[in-house]
């Protein structure tokens, strides 16, 4: 970090000079941060440590910090170098200020705009999507599109970018995907699954009961702002006693069928509905490994039960591939997609 | 992915040939995967789609897939190109096989080994660590060390790498950090905070009660295998009624002090101790934003209460910086570190 301004300055043939107004701003930010976090540091030492951040190549513009580090816009011989902080929040926050700089606008006016969208699927392997994309390509010219597919947390995301005038290729791609893989596609606009679930809930409240996912399902539900409008809460019943005490699962059932069983998942969902007074619930209990697997119930065996207070149920108990982290992540996604199918009133494709 | 073998083959001046044994292996893996996940695909189409993955530059060695993609070791004129799959689990899993290849061993024997370790701190700004590192550097020659610092989920991680013979520099760095920032340092061996908490629990069981972190605290506790030995479970009490129904928080208290208050955090911790029959508990309730803040309780205001069943308590209510994601992430870390201080029987540094 300390070297960036210097290196960029050298590249642009500009000396570093101290921007005193920026130095003062950074100082105030650090002081405020130290005060809010109730920590005490020697302010002079902090000032010295942060003075370097206010060194700016001559003729460059410093952008106000979002955190403690300023950004830079450095004109360099018809090009322009934009220096932004690394943390995504600071980077995104500073982007509009960077774009509004005349030097940046001038460069951007020479560029053609890109359009981008994402198609999201669940429940099929990446090789199947690759095969279908090749099929579509045999029927239509997709060359104006830049298509990237990636497996993200168990979902298959097709990222598409194109310049203006690619409408025909775009329609061919979307039409082909819808026709051949529509049953696996849950969003053509790149929506997160929890956003889709929230919309399908339509004012109803959701509660969850988790064992092997250990809180990941609840965390995913509360990721986005406004989730308190549709998410009541969840129980992470890691210990067997917690399943009984907090969710009312019959201890005899745990004894006879095992904590990881469709029967226990069913009672966990009932418990979540009842204890939270919720309209919909989803329960997950499984063996995330690496230990705890048996021949009958191997590592990756996970029982899901999605239920509505009105009685509709959808339950599955697949064996999921991968290591502990994969199984926990994938279980979270399976739970949300099972809920989606339940709320849509249909069965998942086989 | 489809292009890698081709490009590397061209670089190494080697033609692609079909590795039939590998093709068969990939086919079996895909078949098994399809069967286990209870999905049905046309096996011939899958076979065609995956045949390409079995194309190997002549004279190269294909490494058995960890997922569905094989790796490659391609000798190229005294150098060797190792091709590994991107998913971390597959990459890590295939690494030992790659290292055991004679071509790779030959290259490695010409290399000098690296030592690496991580120092982990919590509760100070990165600029303060930078200042201290400069101070240590004025007193000792740290040039044999490659030092990188980074802020990771609210923790400050100092990553150090060095070749053999850097013992003096290494001791100077560790001694300096311990002397100047020892109170902020919780691991000189790169341990995760939950590992440290688990060790400090020493057989006692932990339960958590979360609101704004929405399950992230429980998820973090259950990240590592074996967490069922020390983690009972948690309640994500997002709705106020859930705080009362599942944790026994007095509804009148929520009414008078607000759901985000030190008093409610205290009762949430009591509830977690009681309902899970746990020995230790940590409660978090706060305003993650972007909405819901007031002058008195702004976005980022979070109340923490760590408690032992034997009565010891540690509570804090800072205002944390950042956006919703930052605040949730940081709150998770503050909760775990507060627990650590409680279990260590000392106060966090100010």
Largest interface, with counts of residues having CB < 8 Å to the other chain, equals: A-B, 78 and 76 residues
- Write down the overall mean pLDDT of chain A: 90
Q: Tell me the CATH topology of the largest domain in chain A.
A: Maf protein
CATH domain class name of the largest domain in chain A: Alpha Beta
Helix % of chain A is: 40-55%
Helices of chain A, by number, come to 13
Summarize, please.
Two copies of one chain form a homodimer. Chain A is α+β, with helices and mostly antiparallel strands and 350 residues long.
Overview of the molecule:
Two copies of one chain form a homodimer. With 350 residues, chain A is of the alpha+beta class. Chain A folds into three domains: 2-110, MoaB/Mog-like domain (Molybdenum Cofactor Biosythetic Enzyme, Chain A, 3-Layer(aba) Sandwich); 115-187, Alpha-Beta Plaits, CATH 3.30.70; 193-344, CinA-like (Maf protein, Alpha-Beta Complex), CATH 3.90.950.20. The first copy, chain A, has 13 helices and 14 strands. Chain A has a five-stranded mixed β-sheet, with helices on both faces. Chain A has a four-stranded antiparallel β-sheet with strand order 7-8-6-9, with helices on one face. Chain A has a three-stranded antiparallel β-sheet with strand order 3-4-5, with helices on both faces. In chain A, α9 links the parallel β10 (206-210) and β11 (231-237). In chain A, α2 (20-36) packs across α3, α6 (126-139) packs across α7 (167-181) and α8 packs parallel to α13. The longest helix of chain A has 21 residues, at 324-344. The first copy, chain A, is globular. The two termini of chain A are 51 Å apart. The model of chain A has no long low-confidence stretch (mean pLDDT 90). At the A-B interface, α2, α3, α6, β10 and α9 of A face α2, α3, α6, β10 and α9 of B.
